[in-house]
Design a protein that fits this description.
The protein has two helices and no strands. By secondary structure, the chain is an all-alpha fold. It has one domain. The two termini are 33 Å apart.
Length: 97
Amino acid sequence: MFEFRDLFQWDRFITPTIIKTFYWLVIALMVLFGISGVFSGLAAMAVSPFGGFILVLSSLASVVVGIVFSRIIAEFILIVFRINEHLGAIRDQGQLR
């Protein structure tokens, strides 16, 4: 975890420590939007059963796709920071010679 003083210093990145929190926040929002879409689809079934069914299926599919894409984006951000750390380690090894 990061400390409060890390916010004012540029020696260490705080994004890798808080990206997981943002990931879980996005997951929670996706699930809430999915539940909202399912209820909207169930309400639309009173008017058009086929249209409501399609809305329910599309909201469930969008939740799954949203979770997968948010995981991909979070992993990409973490990979960029790990590449930076590995390049720094390689640079430090080169300076020792």
